Amino acid sequence: MQIANPIYDVVFKYLMEDNKAARIFLSALLGKEIVGLQFQPQELSTDFGQEGQSSRIEFTTGLTFYSLDFAAQIRTQTGKERQIIIELQKAKLTNDMIRFRSYLGRQYMNTDLFRWIVSRQGWRYKSGIPIYAIFILGKSLQEYADVPVVKPQTSVRDHHTGELLGLKGDFVPSLFYEGLIINVPALSHRWRNELETLLGIFDQEQIDESHHIMNVREGDFPERYRPVIRCLQAAVQSKEMRNKMQIEDDFLCELNDYEFRIETAENEPVRKGNKEKRRSAVLATNCRAESQARAEGKITTASCVSQVAAQSGAELGGNQPPDRLVGCRDRTDFSRVKRTNASYIGY
User: Fold this and answer.
1) Element (DSSP H or E) covering residue 338
2) CA-CA distance, 62 to 213, in Å (whole number)?
3) Best label site of 67, 110, 199, 260, fewest CB within 10 Å?
4) Which pLDDT score, from 0 to 100, does residue 231 have?
């Protein structure tokens, strides 16, 4: 069975826009039944195409970083319903933690995300809606390289005794969030439970040569997760979806090239500095050798210019004629050598 690769932002967005599939997927991650789900991603519209041709494709902010905000109504073990905010962030890299924090901070700063609480004394006040953060990471966390799903938890304890008190009331849930980290590279054939089996849709060892399509067996997935698989199966049959995946590939290729050029430009001063150090070292060695040879009467000043220059060029890896390479600074015709060397040594 072929499905679209949800590691692509456009495919994952397609999956999350299917309300039934999204509820099943997020319920499995939270370990709680979601009875209602609403989301509104931040969109970035980009025009692609050549002059005279334009196809308008919508992506969420950042093709290497994707964020979705959900308002979810969950049913607790006691049968009561409560509202939570799900902050889902999918990233291909793990080194942009400031951006992770800024997206979470945006949720805490949103004054609309509250509910009214009535105290035992009858006072009515606002309390922040609890936030549950989910991170789907395309690059492995080195500290947890072999763990497919990492679950940080908020525990409330007596500071003196260490006794576990549990989450009570609204103060702690309003200020401290729980979360889940999906370590995608660790999912390769390590499906130890139903959740990891569902997350096997991200297992990149099942991709084809294009990286756009994954080959899975529907029978490997529990029946209640089948709507997620069928949603991704429908996506792979869409020509528009395949075109969007190709656009994402092209964009990331250009982005990688751009980052490489930036890194090269940043390292250029260091490279030039190392080259100048090597040039100075060769120059000093040649000057000492020339002085010693002249003192011993083995060479004349005129012949030394070409000999030393040729040696300097060879040691610096150059193939320029002797009169274009670095000469010796103590020769009598230094001014002429300096001018002819201008294009080579940066005068």
Assistant:
1) helix 334-340
2) 22
3) 260
4) 95
Asked whether 221 and 195 are in contact (CB, 8 A), the reply is no
Q: Considering the domain boundaries, does residue 250 fall inside one?
A: no
Residues 297 and 215 in one domain: no
Structure tokens at 272: 């030039």
The verdict on 229 and 292 lying in the same domain is no
41 in the same domain as 154 = yes
- Report yes or no on 314 lying in a domain: yes
C-alpha distances in angstroms, 298 versus 242, 292, 294, 334, 337?
A: 75, 9, 6, 21, 22
The Cα-based distances of 245 to 45, 186, 240 in angstroms read 16, 24, 9
Tell me the C-alpha distance between 286 and 292, whole Å.
Answer: 10
φ and ψ at 33, to 5 degrees?
-75, 125
Query: pLDDT per residue over 131-186, tens digit each?
Result: 999 999 888 888 888 899 999 888 899 999 999 988 888 888 888 888 999 999 89
Residue 124 structure tokens: 């009515």
Residues 204 and 120 in one domain: yes
Check if the beta carbon of residue 295 is closer than 8 Å to that of residue 288. Answer: no
In this structure, the number of other CB atoms found within 10 A of the CB of residue 106 comes to 13
Distance from C-alpha of 26 to C-alpha of 182, rounded to nearest angstrom: 12
State the DSSP code for 159: T
User: Which tokens hold the place of 127?
Assistant: 């309390």
Total domains, the chain: 2
Radius of gyration of the chain (CA): 32
**Residue numbers of the domain that contains 327:** 284-345
